[in-house]
Specification:
The protein has 265 residues and is α/β, with parallel strands linked by helices. The chain is 18% helix and 27% strand. The strands form three sheets. It has a nine-stranded mixed β-sheet with strand order 3-4-5-2-1-6-7-8-9, sandwiched between helices. Helix 1 (13-24) crosses helix 5.
């Protein structure tokens, strides 16, 4: 294969946005995921391929691979391969030039690979030269997309970005442990106070009026405080099916970082 392979850990919306940028820049992308991903912005997350077999994000196909050989076949076809491989056992076989850790754990991340593999760490929990080769800022603001060769991105604020004056109010959180069931779909318009889901029969209401930007898959088990939905107060349906400007900015920073490898830095 002529294209260089990048391994992206995590298939959520931010990591998927980075994967889109890498694909557009001409790299071959393999995403590793959990056996049961818990993603909310499912229409822009390649993690959906784990459940559906394949999915599309902004016209790019992601396909679940059952083996490294099959993943390579998908890459050769111009697609993104998604492997259920949370421990990255595929590394030796794929030999990626870089690992992009986009799991957004938002806590200190262990240095699992030593110096054998170059890791680009996205967001809180990474420190350049400590548990990754390079870290990239994911917090909205003037430093979004900043590349750290030394130091760390901002710590997790615990607060969603403010949109039209709403922050935590626009995100739906699980109030108890149990199986999740949604009554709305991504792209649906909802009103403040509307019941949009339930956990074990107990209703969950939207706190604001807007459009459902993301909602968890039905029947998944959740824990209290887990993010299960996202309502966008702008009411613009297009945002539900489009990679965010934030993910694009971070993806551009990853592509910029990879130029250092291409130029031998």
């Amino acid at each position: 294969m002529d294209k260089k392979i990048i391994l992206v850990r995590g298939g959520g919306d931010l990591a998927s946005g980075v994967a889109v940028c890498l694909h557009e820049a001409g790299y071959s992308v393999v995403i590793t995921e959990l056996a049961q991903p818990l993603v909310v912005r499912r229409k822009v997350s390649f993690a959906e391929a784990v459940y559906e077999g394949s999915c599309s994000v902004e016209g790019i196909t992601g396909r679940k691979a059952d083996s490294v050989t099959q993943a390579l076949d998908f890459l050769a076809a111009g697609e993104i391969a998604v492997l259920v491989d949370p421990d990255c056992e595929c590394l030796e076989s794929l030999a990626p030039i870089v690992i992009v850790d986009g799991r957004m754990l938002k806590r200190e991340v262990a240095n699992e690979f030593g110096e054998k593999w170059r890791v680009i760490g996205l967001g809180p929990g990474f420190a350049a030269g400590v548990n990754c080769w390079v870290a990239i800022e994911t917090n909205r603001g003037p430093n979004l997309g900043k590349i750290f060769h030394e130091g760390s991105p901002d710590p997790d604020t615990g607060l969603p970005a403010i949109v039209m004056g709403f922050s935590r109010e626009r995100v739906i959180y699980a109030h108890r442990e149990g199986h999740f069931k949604a009554f709305v779909d991504i792209g649906d318009r909802v009103d403040a106070g509307q019941i949009i889901a339930e956990i074990e029969g107990e209703p969950i209401n939207s706190q604001i009026k807007g459009v459902v930007r993301g909602i968890l898959r039905n029947e998944l088990m959740v824990q209290p405080g887990f993010k299960v939905g996202d309502v966008d107060p702008t009411g613009e349906r297009a945002v539900c099916f489009t990679v965010s400007d934030k993910a694009r900015r971070i993806g551009a920073a990853v592509v910029e970082t990879l130029k250092e490898i291409d130029t031998g830095v």
